[in-house]
From TrEMBL:
EC number: 4.3.2.2
InterPro entries named in the record: Fumarase/histidase_N (IPR024083), Fumarate_lyase_CS (IPR020557), Fumarate_lyase_fam (IPR000362), Fumarate_lyase_N (IPR022761), L-Aspartase-like (IPR008948), PurB_bact (IPR047136), PurB_C (IPR013539)
PANTHER family in the record: ADENYLOSUCCINATE LYASE
Domain of life: Bacteria
Domain Fumarate lyase N-terminal: 60-308
Protein name: Adenylosuccinate lyase
Organism: Conyzicola lurida
Positions of the Adenylosuccinate lyase PurB C-terminal domain: 329-448
Key words of the record: Lyase, Purine biosynthesis
Amino acid sequence: MSPLPEQPLSPLDGRYRASVAGLGEFLSEAGLNRARVQVEVEWLLYLTDHELFGSSRLDHEQARALRALVADFGQAEIDELATLEATTRHDVKAVEYLVRHKLADLGLNDVAELTHFACTSEDINNLSYALTIGSAVREVWTPRLRSIIEKLRALSVEHRDTPMLAHTHGQPATPTTVGKEFAVFVYRLERVIAQVEATQYLGKFSGATGTFAAHVAADPGLDWPAISSEFVTSLGLEWNPLTTQIESHDWQAELYQRMSHANRILHNLCTDIWTYISMGYFTQIPQAGATGSSTMPHKINPIRFENAEANLELSSALLESLSQTLVTSRLQRDLTDSSTQRNIGVAIGHSMLAMDNLGRGLSEFSIDTAALAADLDSNWEILGEAIQTVIRAEITAGRSSISDPYALLKELTRGRRIGQTELVEFIDALDIGQEAKDGLRVLTPAGYAGLASDLVRFVQK
C-alpha cells in the first residue's frame, strides 16, 4: 500500500476548514507570529519615540515602513521565520532576527539593539496571545454566537403565541409557548456573551521574573512600571503590574470558562430541539439531494444538532482544560503553558464548527402546530394545577369548604388521562363560587400558558 499524500490531522484543518477559516487569521502559528512582530515593532518605536538610550525618533516614512512589516505580513515572512527558527530553535528569537533584518534593509542598524530590548520571550508572547485571542473572540467567535442568538430571537417572536405542552421530568406539565422556550435560551446566551465581551485582556512587560531587573540595570532613573503600563495599554490591553516571568493567565481562564458556559447552553438547546424533533413537535425540512440513512430512505436525521452537540462537548472539554491548567506555573515559570496555548484555536474552532451546524439546523426545521395541538388536547389532566389553585383562592375568600384541594385533584388526575367532559363534570360538582366555575369550564390546555407570550418581550428588540 503506497502512503497517502500529506493530509491534515485535525478535521478542523480538513473536512471542516471552511467553517472555522476566520480563526486562522489570528490563532494560527502565522497569526501568532504576526502579532509577535507587531509587539517587537511597537516596542522599538516606543523606545525611539521617547528617544531613550540616545536614540532618535524615526521619521514618518521609517515608522510606516516598519509597521508595514505587520500590515504586509505574508508567506515570505512565514517562510523566512521558518528558516530562522530552524537555526535558532526558538520561535521568538526568530521573530527578533526577522525585525533586525528589516531594520538593516531600511538602513536603521543604529537602533537595531533596541529590538527585543530588556524583553524576555514571554513579554512578547503574552501580549501577542492577548492581541490574537482578543481579535479572534471579538471578530470571529462573538459574531457567530450573535448570529445564533438572533435566529433564536426571531423564532421566539414568531412563535410567541404557539402553545406547546411542556414536559418536566419528561412528563406532561403546564403548557408554555414555543416562542417563550426559545426566549429562555436568548436570555441565557445574552448574559454570557455580555460577560465574554467584558473580558479584560491583560498584558505584562516586566522582564525575566517580573521585576524590571534588566531595565533598571540599563537605566535606574526611568520609571519602568509607568513605561510598561503606557506601552501595554497603547496596544489596547490592560496592564498587569504583578507577575512572574509570565502573565498569570487568569484572564484567559475567566474567558474560557465563559465561552465553555456558552457552549453548554447551546448544548442544552441542541438536546431540547433534538427531543422536540423526536416527539414530532418540530419537523425537519428535507434538503434537496440529502440522504438521512444509507439504508432507510424515509429518514431525515437531526444531524446538525447532533454534530453541534459533539463539537460543543469537545470545545468545552478543551476550554475547561485550558482554564484549569493555565493558572498554574511552577515557581516563577515553567513551559507547560507554551504547549497548552497552542491549542486555543482548536478549542475555539470546535465551538465555531458547532455553531455553524446549529445555525444551519435552526434554518432547516418547522413547527408542527397540528402535532402540538393534538398533544395538548390529549392531556386535559394538566389543568389539575389550575383547578386546585383556584379552589385554594376560593377557600381563602370564604367561598369554599373543601379541606384539601391538592389531594382532591391528585386523586382525580395522578397517573390518569382524563378528557374535557370528565373535567367539566368534576368542576360542576365543586364547592366553589359560580364565577370561579365559569372561568374553569372554559379553560383548555392550549389556553393555559399563562404569560408565556408576554414574557417574550424581555428578549424582543
